[in-house]
Amino acid sequence: MKANMHGHRARKRFGQNFLHDPYIISKIVSAIHPQPTDCLVEVGPGMGALTEPLLEASGKLNVVELDRDLIPILRTKFFNYPEFRIYEGDALKFDFSQLLEPGQRLRIVGNLPYNISTPLIFHFLSHHAQVQDMHFMLQKEVVERLGAVPGNGDYGRLSIMAQYYCKVEPLFIVGPGSFNPPPKVDSAIVRMIPYETLPIQAKDVKTLERVVREAFNMRRKTIRNTLKNLISADALAQLGIDTGLRPEVLTLAQYVTIADAVYEQQAASETE
């Protein structure tokens, strides 16, 4: 594993791959289009390749970094920005609402480590009301899953929950050569914009999450079988759902319909 010019070695356990391609960096920053009025937060700034142009454009930035060896490097590099704030910690456990200023929502940016990217995205989705937009660098296959449509093999729990909360826009692909060390896979940039008002709203989002998780636990089986512990085949048929379909062909709207029925069924049995 090679050390870069600052002598910091990318760490496997943090899933670190440092971005160094100036063309890609400027492409990402222009997609984000940071403004001085933004409440910007960067997750996992690494060696600060994106941090620098973000700070130049907005003048202020919060960063959350887990690798404590990087913190002195970042402090030194950006000491002349009084509104550059570093928070040492795990983004999965970090309370992002503490960064909010009155009347503002967060703009979240990050080259997310592949080993925790999915749980991190779920963490950010749970804060969706406080978020203006998110721009992430992820493994290309994760971006494909986020934007997948019903009937596509990449469509699953991540696609449905991301699209429940956000408009998902895959932007462009980034090859391994843009990183040090180069990862073994292509990466991609995705933009996620939380809806002001959810286009389809479930009666209870926890029930929706549970239905979707159960449905995709065994994606080769039919919906009748994967959801049998939550709802009967007859009840599904009454909702107008073909019980012989596989989970990946049902739309978000159909999952919300099922989740609402499961929720009502549970509420009715509790009041009996």
Layout: helices, strands, pairs:
Elements: E1 18-19, H1 22-32, E2 39-43, H2 51-58, E3 61-65, H3 70-77, E4 84-88, E5 106-111, H4 117-125, E6 131-139, H5 140-147, H6 157-165, E7 166-174, E8 179-180, E9 187-194, H7 205-217, H8 223-226, H9 233-238, H10 252-271
Parallel strand pairs: 2-3, 2-5, 3-4, 5-6
Antiparallel strand pairs: 1-8, 6-9, 7-9
Instruction: Compute the average pLDDT.
Output: 90
Number of strands: 9
Percentage beta strand = 15-25%
Radius of gyration of CA atoms, rounded to a whole number: 21 Å
CATH homologous superfamily of the largest domain, by name?
Answer: Vaccinia Virus protein VP39
According to CATH, what is the topology of the largest domain? Rossmann fold
Task: Please estimate the helix content.
Answer: 25-40%
For the terminal residues, how far apart are their CA atoms?
A: 63 Å
The biggest sheet, with number of strands, parallel, antiparallel or mixed sense and barrel status, is: 7 strands, mixed
CATH class of the largest domain: Alpha Beta
CATH architecture of the largest domain: 3-Layer(aba) Sandwich
Secondary structural class: alpha/beta
